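PROTEIN–LIGAND DATA SHEET

This sheet pairs a single protein chain with one bound small molecule, flavin mononucleotide, given as SMILES. Inputs appear in the order they were entered. The predicted three-dimensional arrangement of chain and ligand is reported afterwards as a token string under its own label.
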Amino acid sequence: MAIDSLSEFISAIEQAGELVRVSEPVRTRLEIAEIADRCMKSRDGGPALLFERPVLESGSVSPIPVAINLFGSPRRICLALGVDRLDEIAGRISELLELKVPEGLMGKLALLPKLAELAKFPPRSKSGRGACQEVVLEGDAVDLDAFPFLVTWPEDGGRYLTLPLVITEDPARGIRNVGMYRVQVIGRNELAMHWQRHKVGAAHWREMAERKQRMPVVIALGGDPASMYSGSAPLPPTIDEFLFAGFIRRNPVELVKAVSCELMVPADAELVLEGYIDPAEDLVLEGPFGDHTGFYSLADYYPKVHVTHVTMRKQPIYPATLVGRPPMEDYYLGNATERIFLPLLKLTVPEIVDYHMPAPGIFHNLVFVSIDKQYPGQAYKVMNALWGQGLMSLAKVIVVLDKEVNVQNPDEAWWVALNHIDPERDVRFSMGPIDVLDHASRAFTYGSKMGIDATRKWPEEGFTREWPKRIEMDAETKHRVDAMWGRLGIQIRDP
Ligand SMILES: Cc1cc2nc3c(=O)[nH]c(=O)nc-3n(C[C@H](O)[C@H](O)[C@H](O)COP(=O)(O)O)c2cc1C
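PREDICTION REPORTED AS:
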């Protein structure tokens, strides 16, 4: 059974023994973040937390509990996406991509269940109000100070919503986008929208600004966990995140119309902020913010959202996350993307065997990729292809290795890479777009990239020396030692 709401997800986490309810009053300013950080830094991501008595800036206790670190363990990210292993979703995507038209009537009939399953995925529009609209606040009743939004680091510019689904529409093509972009509370009914320039929401806004049209924006919190994850997935602008979430959870996402505009929101969300951006208005200062790089992002100018309506459940739960020096909860969201997108990467770069973005590389700083090398220069072909794909174009360092290297193990990947390279020969620099959060590039969002060809070099690539073999113990000796191991009295722990 698919999990339809945040409270069902929290119950499932509790049943799995991975939830701690905190009944002690804890301040939304820094204290929740410090407690969450200690959990996220512990083994396997620590427990999910439900703060039942969050203390607002005013000193009063909010009736709205704060949930944090919900996705932050290998088990919980699988629970969120309804699988035992993330590779199951990649497997289903591969099957779809490899769908051949079968021969004969029986073969065609065998295809029907798969097509029927596909037809189940699109989001379903419900008429009337959704659970997320049990309470509707508008006008003066909108007061963002009444919600337990967090201040996460001491030098942050204010309170932020860190796990929102920002819903917008492409004015030219009418296609919806759902993006996870943090928003800063800058007034009782005003927010600063931190969509970075490479993101789809920002492209919609540029288009609306060019047309000089007011842009409706809806920010949903909660809903089913597959939808929550999908906001962070780097899908092409033409693919609706709610369709993708429906595919992941094998059940459509139910949507209802927002109360103030035509945008649709997940019926099962906890809390929805509805409003608009006026392109005639000046941008506002957003930040600084303790970011997922582990450093503060500098304050910069972003569009202001006027919140005209807040809709919510009668007893909502506010979902949040904390970013900062890795590892943090976002590693598990990003890792799901890494696993799920492997077959899609292979579609255009078929020699890719596997890839991995280790936690300290915060996704865009370091990508290990293993390939089935079949011709000279292929490592360069692969890095150039990656730098030409969606948000992979922001990757700062790409290390290409041969297929036998387990790139899921960064120690192994670096060990092989550092042995295999002649730096002057195998390292290349390129230029391109750089992630907005990169503080080292020569210019904002523009700078250099490094590609390392750590594959075995071929004679056609100018390498004529003998290439050594990896050291491995022979199987016979291993068997003999296995047989005597129990008698040796040696206790060792796996690395
Ligand atoms: C916890 C978390 C916070 C994020 N915050 C931001 C943000 O503030 N701004 C941004 O542009 N991207 C942010 N991202 C990354 C985007 O969600 C991600 O790039 C996603 O693909 C964007 O959706 P889009 O491709 O539809 O634009 C965040 C991701 C996570 C997991």
